[in-house]
Amino acid sequence: MTTPTASAQPVVREDALRSALASGKRPKRPNALSASLTFGWRALLKIKHVPEQLFDVTAFPIMFTLMFTYLFGGAIAGSTGEYLQFLLPGILVQTVVFITMYTGMGLNTDVTKGVFDRFRSLPIWRPAALVGALLGDVARYAMASTIVIALGLILGFRPEGGVIGVLLSVALVLVFSFSLSWIWTALGLILRTPNSVMMVSFMILFPLTFASNIFVDPRTMPSWLETTIGFNPITHLVTAVRGLMSGTAAIPQIGAVFLSCAVLIAVFAPITMYLYRNKK
Amino acid sequence: MSKEDFIAGEGDGKMSIGRDLVDGADGLAIHAEGLVHRFGDNVAVGGVDLKVVPGEIYGFLGPNGAGKTTTIRMLATLLRPDSGTARVFGHDVVRESDAVRGRVSLTGQFASVDEDLTGLENLVLIARLLGHSRKQAKARANELLDAFGLSEAAGRQVKKYSGGMRRRLDIAASIVVTPDLIFLDEPTAGLDPRSRNQVWEIIRTLAAEGTTVLLTTQYLDEADQLADRIAVIDHGRVIAEGTPGELKASVGSGALHVRLRDPEQKPQAERILSQALGVPVQPGSDPASLSARVSDPERVSYALVELSRSGVATTDFALGQPSLDEVFLALTGRPAEDEDTAATEGEAA
Q: Is the ipTM beyond the 0.90 threshold?
């Protein structure tokens, strides 16, 4: 038999390997939360190593906020200053909801790599890899929210609800985005390429965000459209966020958002997990 | 042993060789019966039976797309068999998949590590996922990086690693907790000879320390070097099984290639060689070359002496181990070919 002693200092140290094998005892399994947080840590590490992926969370907020404020402000509300008070909570929602789309694309790329096979062959709570990825994305959403609000404050947005109102509204947006992301994880597992995930996501997101109360008061619309918009979960979210930011939030408004979140997770998380388990 | 004896037929044609195989759930590391998996209309695995004894190195030998990866993925609980059953250490891979995952590790064909992360982060990640505390995870990661000669590269992103380093990290990630069974899918594919030897040493050490190894390979010499037993896979079926010695005995230990100085002497040389070797001799495509499959290398020297005694001068001769092609030719009567299914399997992986 051949022995690999090509160099004086062998690369693989057999004695060390033997002792490592002998000491490789299995610790107690981590619980679901701990495993998910570890995957969340992985997502943060990826942001650290590949900062380019923050482009979307910085470019989208700035682009959307400036564009819609100055394009529509004069026409819709008479002045951009007035319009900003109305628009900013909505633009916060639109920005973050749009960014959730990248979750599906990221997952689609990730799942096709060998490392997901390893994750799937580990004895851990199975949704952890996905929940963790979504938790990591929440950090990205938080970044985007900060940019929108900071930019809004610079442009003259003054929330009556104060710091607490703003923080609570951001928290609500993050919870909703986490729930909505399960649609994209399911799509990311069904569709073949990241590009097709993006296409389909856009086709869902455009009507979802524009056919809502983000840009204009639905009372100005035909009644059938106003009714339809009343069913859009984005509308409920924007209403609640406006309420929190202006300090006039009512419990039913926030309750409606949590209900949408629960429905989204109840429907799309099991679909995602089914697809994940049976991914070829 | 004749070739017919070796080729596993349906059911009882297959031989159990080497060690005494204990039947039933107990005692076996892997016990698969009639495993089938289809991708659409394409049958990737068409009824694989398998018995692997704890502590042995078991080799899957076959061309691309023969169903090796798909079989491993079923055994590692990543794919559900369409029919058939498989138990790993007595646990059913479908019904008790979680228990199976608690005993095995998988090193996939393409690096199963995160290329964006550093070597250290990859190992800490796996250690944390397996339940180590932050501190233990770091200690374990450093211990493994050191053992695999990767300490210096610990802080570098894996995408900047060489093929050999990546493969070592990959195996290190599989033994963060020492598994009872490790799946290695083409562990040396694309490696230079030196890195390949290092991986071989690692695999031998793993087995020596008690881990059962199931590895796939396209190279007979690799299976020969490492495996206690080999299953030859073709079109999703095990077509032969045995120790490397038995396998080689059944296909001949290799081929003798002879090149003559004078092509005119070819018919004469053919006659002498076939007499001396006791096997048919094939005239090569080149007018001056001849080749023959030999089962007994000792007769080769005799045959060569016979040639020169008869005044047939040779410019060149070589005796080679049988290639995968020759194994396939001997077992199936046709050369190994990368099947169309390779694309499907590659996608699936």
A: no
Q: Do A18 and B209 touch (CB under 8 A)?
A: yes
In what order do the strands lie in the sheet containing B91-92? B42-52, B30-39, B83-88, B91-92
Do the Cβ atoms of B132 and A6 come within 8 Å?
no
| C-alpha–C-alpha distance, residues A39 and A10, integer Å | 34
Alpha-carbon gap: B340 to the closest alpha carbon of chain A (Å):
18
CB contact under 8 Å between A27 and B121, yes or no, is no
Rounded to a whole number, what is the distance in Å from the CA of B346 to chain A's nearest CA?
Answer: 11
DSSP class of B21 = P
Closest CA relative to residue A233, chosen from A162, A277, A274, A182 = A182
Could you give the domains of chain B?
3-249 (3.40.50.300), 254-320 (3.30.70.100)
Per the CB < 8 Å rule, is B131 touching A28? yes
**CA distance to partner chain B, nearest, from residue A97 (Å):** 26
**Intra-chain end-to-end CA distance of chain B, in Å:** 37
Phi/psi for B106 (5° steps) reads -125, 130
Instruction: Measure the CA–CA gap between B5 and B135, rounded to whole angstroms.
Output: 56
- pTM of the shown model: 0.81
Spatial separation of the C-alpha atoms in residues A252 and A240, rounded to whole Å: 9
Q: How far apart are CA A129 and CA A122, in angstroms?
A: 11
Distance (Å, rounded) from C-alpha B286 to C-alpha B275? 22
Q: Give residues 70 to 99 of B whose Cβ lies within 8 Å of A.
A: 73, 76-80, 98
Residues in chain B, total: 349
Going by the DSSP 8-state scheme, the letter that residue B238 receives in this structure is: E
Q: Which of residues 99-118 of A touch B (CB under 8 A)?
A: 113-115, 117-118
Closest-CA residue of chain B to A12: B148
Could B76 and A12 be called an inter-chain contact, meaning their C-beta atoms sit closer than 8 Å? no
Q: Which residue of A has its CA nearest to B169?
A: A12
Collapsed DSSP state (helix, strand, coil) of residue B24: coil
Residue-wise pLDDT tens for chain A (280 aa)? 444 444 445 688 888 999 999 888 889 999 999 999 999 999 999 989 988 888 888 888 898 889 888 888 888 888 888 889 999 999 999 999 988 988 888 888 887 777 888 998 999 998 999 999 999 999 999 999 999 999 999 999 999 999 999 999 999 999 999 999 999 999 988 888 888 888 999 899 999 999 999 988 888 889 999 999 989 999 999 999 999 999 888 889 999 999 999 999 999 999 999 998 877 6
For residue B160, which amino acid is it? K
Task: Find out whether B69 and B349 touch, Cβ atoms under 8 Å.
Answer: yes
Cα–Cα dist B223/B225, whole Å: 5
What is the C-alpha separation between A53 and A201, in angstroms, rounded? Answer: 18
The two tokens of residue B260 are 């003559």
Secondary element (H or E) of residue A71: helix A55-77
Question: Can you tell me the distance from the alpha carbon of A80 to that of A210, in angstroms, rounded to the nearest whole number?
Answer: 19
| DSSP states of A130-190 | HHHHHHHHHHHHHHHHHHHHHHHHHHT---TTHHHHHHHHHHHHHHHHHHHHHHHHHHHHH
